[in-house]
Amino acid sequence: MSINDYKFDVISVMNSIGEASNNNLILILQDGIAIGRLPLETDLEDDNSLIKLFNKCFKEFRESEVQEYPQAISLVDVKYTSSGTTVNLPHMVFFIDQIVGVSIGLESPKNVL
Length: 113
Description:
Layout: H1 3-20, E1 24-29, E2 32-37, H2 41-45, H3 50-61, E3 72-82, E4 85-95, E5 99-105, H4 109-112
Antiparallel strand pairs: 1-2, 1-5, 2-3, 3-4
């Protein structure tokens, strides 16, 4: 098992706990905080969703080798805060090796940083 597998497992468990308790997934990154959620099956099935379009295009245009271990995760409905600036994004991809920590909560990122 690679460290990326372990991180992905922890993130998935925290996301599940967040869903069950009506909390958001919070990713702590080196330069900011991202609050969102992992995509639901309905997000992946919706023909108009950005995540479905991203996944389709990524498979079509990918030139890198498929790795045995996860390299990145996608979040939807993201609120990303860095250096005091907050941006709301419908979809954001995070490279697993850049994630420092993970939590759940309802805290606004403006109050966290």
